[in-house]
Amino acid sequence: MTATVKGSGAFGPAAAGGGRAADGRSARWSSHRAARREEFIDAAVRVAAEHGPDLRIALVAAEAGVTKPVLYRQFADKADLLDAVQQRLTRILLDRLMPALTAPVPPVARVRGALDAFFSMLEDYPHLLSRPGDATPTGRARVAAALTGVYGERLRALGLGTRGAEAWAHATVGMVHGTAQWWGRERPMTRTEVVDQLTAMVWAAVDGYLRQHGVVLDPATTG
C-alpha cells in the first residue's frame, strides 16, 4: 500500500508538474512561431509594395533574411502566404477606412475622407491592384461588408429600411475599385483630383438614393 502511494506520488504530482512545464514550453513555442510568422508577413507585404501581389518566394525569403525552407515552416505553400498578405493588407485598409467612415463630420467630408484613405493605401502600396482581374477579391468583400454595416446604420438613423444597404455598398466598392485600377495604371491626375472627382460621384449617388426615399440630407451638416 505504501509502495503504491509512493508510486502515485512519483507519477502523479511530478507528472503534473512536468505537464505544466511542457505546457509552458508549448505556449512559448507557439508564441514564437506566431511572432515569426508575423515577421515573415511583414517582409512579404514590403515585397508586395515594391514588386506587386504575385509574390516571388525567393524575394520574400531574402527580405526576411532567411532561406525558403525556413519560410515554408510557417506557411503551407505560396497560396497560404499570399492569403496571409491579402488579409494583412485588408486589415491595414480597414484600419484607415473605418475611422474616416465613422468620423463626426458632414457627410460629404466623410465620403471624401474614406476615399482619400483608400487612395493613400494605393500610394503606399502602388502594386496592390496590379494583377489583372484584381488581386484582392476577398479584401473587396470585407470592405463591402464593413460598408454595408455603415450604410445600414445610417439608413436606420434616417428612418429608412436597410434592405438596399448591401447592394449599395457593393456598387460603391465596385465604382471606386474600377476607378482605382484605371488611376493606378494611367495616373492621369493627382490623388487629390481623383478623390475630389470620386467624392462628387459617390455623393451624387448617395443624395439621389436618399431623395428617392424622401430624405434630403444637407451635405454640410454634421451627422
UniProtKB/TrEMBL annotation:
The reply on keyword Disulfide bond is no
Q: Which PROSITE patterns match?
A: HTH_TETR_2
Q: Which GO terms describe its molecular function?
A: DNA-binding transcription factor activity; transcription cis-regulatory region binding
Q: Which residues bind DNA?
A: 56-75
Transmembrane segment boundaries = none
Matching InterPro entries: Homeodomain-like_sf, HTH-type_TetR-like_transc_reg, HTH_TetR, Tet_transcr_reg_TetR-rel_C_sf, TetR_C_32
Recorded protein name is: Transcriptional regulator, TetR family protein
UniProt keyword annotations, A-Z: DNA-binding
Instruction: Tell me which domain of life the UniProt entry assigns to the organism this sequence originates from.
Output: Bacteria
- Location of the HTH tetR-type domain: 34-93
Q: Does the keyword Kinase apply?
A: no
Q: List the top taxonomic levels of the source.
A: Bacteria, Bacillati, Actinomycetota, Actinomycetes, Kitasatosporales
